[in-house]
Every structure is written in structure tokens, then in C-alpha cells.
């Protein structure tokens, strides 16, 4: 099973789903930030706070 790792820096809810603003690690020594909102229920993930 393949897992993606996301770093959550903000969460919100629209009343139906939790929506997460995330940072995605693209390499071992640098984190590239994507300011986007996704519903993490659609992914198989490992979460780190």
C-alpha cells in the first residue's frame, strides 16, 4: 500500500466535510508548500501534526 505524507497546518469544515490546508514534502531536505484545500477522506495517508 502506498501512503502519501501530508503536513497539516490548518483545518476547517464546511458542515459536511473536513477540509485541510496542507504542506507536501517533495524531497528529504526541503518542503514545498502548496496552499490548497483537499478532502483527506479521498486519500490513504499518514498524518503528521
UniProtKB/TrEMBL annotation:
Descriptive protein name: Uncharacterized protein
Q: Which organism is it from?
A: marine sediment metagenome
